[in-house]
Amino acid sequence: MRVPTLLLGAGQAGVIIAKEIGGRPDLAIEPVGFLDDDPAKLGSIVHGVRVLGKTTEIEEITRVTGAQQAIITIANASGADIKNLAHLCEQAGIQVKIIPGIYELLDGKVNLTRIRDVSIEDLLGREAVTLDLELLSTFIKDKRVLITGAGGSIGSELCRQVARFEPARLALVEQTEFNLFTIHQDLLASYRRLDLQPLICDVCDSARLEDIFEVERPQLVFHAAAHKHVPMMEWNPGEALKNNVFGTKKVADAAHRHGAETFVLISTDKAVNPTSIMGATKRAAEMYMQALSQTSRTKFVAVRFGNVLGSTGSVVPIFKAQIAAGGPVTITDPEMKRHFMTIPEASQLVIQAAAIGNNSEIMLLDMGEPVRIADLAEELIRLSGLQPGRDIEIVYTGVRPGEKLLEELSFDVEKMTKTSHHKVFVGNLRPCDLAEVSSKLEVLSAFTNSTSRDEVRKALRELVVEMRESVDERRAVARPARIETPLELENQDLRAAPAE
Fold this sequence. Notes:
The chain is α/β, with parallel strands linked by helices. 40% of the residues lie in helices and 18% in strands. It is built from 18 helices and 22 strands. It has a nine-stranded mixed beta sheet with strand order 10-9-8-11-12-13-18-22-21, sandwiched between helices. Strands 3-4-2-1-5-6-7 form a seven-stranded mixed beta sheet. A two-stranded parallel ribbon has the order 14-17. Strand 9 (169-174), helix 7 and strand 10 (196-200) form a beta-alpha-beta unit. Helix 2 (58-65) packs across helix 3 (79-92), helix 8 (206-216) runs parallel beside helix 10 and helix 10 (237-257) runs parallel beside helix 11.
């Protein structure tokens, strides 16, 4: 049975889609009319489908036509446009769908088999990334590439993006066996001619790293392996030092020792004036990388960006799980905001930044406007066909250890430099002296087995002087003294979805 469907947008894209639907009875779509806000199109017929009215009239037209769903047929629709249309369809009681890649319209055709529900990524409206393909091909093609954290959210997408540019060999370094198996199988299926080497390795294991670099001799190293969750690293401070600081140091040293052409550190906006142990460890890793770059033939570059939609353990999949369970959706603070990117966008720009960057530079990706976490939660609830506050309750649980209400994107504007790519900037941070950084890291290494949050934070401040108090520390000073029990802290913190 064909589903009665409204097409939202009777422009060029709508014309092509109406034509495609007409020739594809297998899609089970019955177009009952177009909606378009251009008065000149009202009443016109496009490939046998009449323009019935404006999008604001969708509720009335749905009742008249018996439409059960709508498809957005506007090329390059902004996030705001998609959000507005989704809300109108919600009010009309019908599903809304979208066609990924509609903006391309290659050869006047669109792949209708990719029709899907509108997602939170669509509502955020991140524009498609344009890459300097010639530059990236020169940077990667026929090179030996090694990626640490290859099975993680960013690492696995980096593997896919790098594979597109035909490296001579791609070494996948990953600690978790299942994650390594998954990305290895994925790449084998998509890039059958690619020379792949899956390597189980903890980046803190010096001997194993040495063996890998000796055999692989990578020319390009992308270091994505890291502990990334802010509260988790407040609970496990020594492990944050061990992996994020000294694991990075070991990989960077191996790249230097074995003559890699380029080493790329995946960093974070949480390294800017860090309030968390995680952020401070990433800043410490940047500092060592910059210091080492002054005495190495290897080009060392760090790339900072914010939160990635849909990454493992991040806020979107947690919210979706909470909604599926009937709620409540838990948020730490009503004013909590974050900058977001999609996983492919972040990974593509990391490679672009690495190709553009010069030695010892810290690159920043343009993250766009920050998103209020509460707004994000409400949109996800609506996309699930439910109403915030009525069907799904939203509960605020309090800021967790190490968190900021809003992450700072970067350095002061006057300290940033534009690059040849409009979404990539350079922060002009002067490298530290290698002997000085190494000396302070030697002191810091004594705390890699520490379980004391206060002890590790104090030690980190000796190296990362810009480290600040976190929101929970400031509030603890401001409120009457009371020691919360470990069980109270655990129950409070585990309820709330992470903002990172």
